[in-house]
Structures are given as C-alpha cells and as structure tokens.
Amino acid sequence: MIHHAALRDYCGSKKGAQETFPFDQSTLVFKVMNRMFALMSHEHKEGEPLTINLKCDPALAEILRSTYEAIRPGYHMDKRHWNTVTIDGSIPDDEIYRMIDDSYTLVVAGLTRKDRAALEALD
C-alpha cells in the first residue's frame, strides 16, 4: 500500500510540479503551471485514512467510482471532474499512480499553448 511520502514524492516528480498551500497550512496542493492536479493532507495522521483528490475525465470517474468503493466524488471539488481516492489497500498501487498520471495529463492538456511551451522548456 502506498504511503504518504511516496504519494508526495510521485506527485512532486511530475514535470513542472509545485507544492503549494493556497487554502490552509494542512492541505498540500500540487500544481503544474498554476493549475491544480492533486490535493492531499500535508502530513498524514496515524489512524486516519490517507486520501488524495485527483482530476479525472467525467466518464472514467464514474467507472472508477463504480469499480472501487474507495473512490468517491471529489470532496469540496467539482464532483464531476474530481475524485477523492482513499488509500486503504483496496486499489492496486499501479492504479493509483495511473490516476495521478491521468490527472496531471488532463491538466497539462488544458493549458494554454504558451503555458505548455513554457512547461516543455523546463529541464
């Protein structure tokens, strides 16, 4: 099962990813070119479930929600485009990483041409 540090490292490894705290000091938001692609707690508290909010294509979001009980509409997010994923061992790790990849890819695809070019120029 994926741990908090692994999720944080994976999200932070995406090209152009930035860790931000736009809402409060406990909600860690990952952005690419100032657009959110993942939200999670800054620190994981022992005994509480680890969750991450990820952007998702609406049709795929419905499929994932019907496949996994640990995936539900995004908490405090546009429920059509965001999922809240509870990391409880019921979803394979590679599926969680794929959902992070998909979230990042969706956000990058929605960037302006100028922002995509700036992202590509990053080393």
Description:
- With 123 residues, the chain is α+β, with helices and mostly antiparallel strands.
- The protein has a single domain, classed as Alpha-Beta Complex (Aspartate Aminotransferase, domain 1), CATH 3.90.1150.30.
- The protein is 37% helix and 26% strand.
- It has 4 helices and 6 strands.
- A 6-stranded antiparallel sheet has the order 1-2-3-4-6-5, covered by helices on one side.
- It is globular, with a radius of gyration of 14 Å.
- The chain starts with a helix and ends with a helix.
- The model has no long low-confidence stretch (mean pLDDT 95).
List the helices and strands and how they pair.
Layout: H1 4-12, E1 17-20, E2 27-32, E3 35-41, E4 50-55, H2 58-67, E5 71-73, E6 82-87, H3 93-109, H4 113-121
Antiparallel strand pairs: 1-2, 2-3, 3-4, 4-6, 5-6
Helix content: 25-40%
Strand content: 25-35%
Integer count of domains: 1
General shape? globular
- Number of H/I helices: 4
CATH class: Alpha Beta
Can you tag this structure with a few keywords?
globular, Aspartate Aminotransferase, domain 1, 4 helices, six-stranded antiparallel sheet, 123 residues, 26% strand, single chain, alpha+beta
Compact summary:
By secondary structure, the chain is α+β, with helices and mostly antiparallel strands. It has helices at about 5-10, 60-65, 95-110, 115-120; strands at about 15-20, 25-30, 35-40, 50-55, 70-75, 80-85.
